[in-house]
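user: Here is a favour to ask of a fellow structure person. I have my own habits and do not want them to colour yours. Could you put it straight underneath, so I can go through it closely?

assistant:
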Amino acid sequence: MVKIMYASITKKIVMSLVGLFLTSFLVVHMSINLLILFDDTRQLFNEAAHFMATNPFIQTFQWILFIGFIVHIILGLVLQIQNWMARPVGYDRKGSSEMSFFSKYMIHTGAIVFIFLLLHFANFFVKAKFGHLEEITYDSGTFEDLGILVVQLFQDGGYVAFYVIAILLLGFHLEHGFQSAFQSLGLNHNKYTPVIKVVGTLFSIAITLGYIAIPLVIYFS
């Protein structure tokens, strides 16, 4: 029993560290994507995308991110299954706290976000990596026009709606996950927990609004 408990704690710690690491990807990815809103020629975005696609360090780092996603997903599933197996049938605690409410649906939001990531991966990464993109020339050189792919996809109302819903669920996932990660790492204190919760909420709101702004501005412009 003790070994099982420590194994579960270890999984939570690893999952928390990986989750916090993945937030760096969300920030960088959002920052680059937002560039497309500040330049009608898409130059800033295309140049940034070219840098990301050709820089050896970034190319290596993307595989680390990919492994991180896989580890995060697997550990999330394992921990959820363990929780289901340990919980009595029909268990329901009335008057549950906000934390338990978010915990209850973490696996559901995570699953939907994962499906979204697969579609997003197919629509952008695969096409950019293995498809044939048009080229566009600026004063700084000639680049593949990944920006036009983004614009065209976000002119599809159905995809925009799906994207917005998925990002809202991602924000929901982040809001709880951020605080839960620090709690799993042992940073659970009356003095620090409220601050961590506020930071997590602000971070999830910023990420959600930043990502949602991109398809909405493109679609309605």
Q: What stands out?
A: Confidence is low (pLDDT under 50) at residues 1-6, 94-98. The chain has seven helices and two strands.
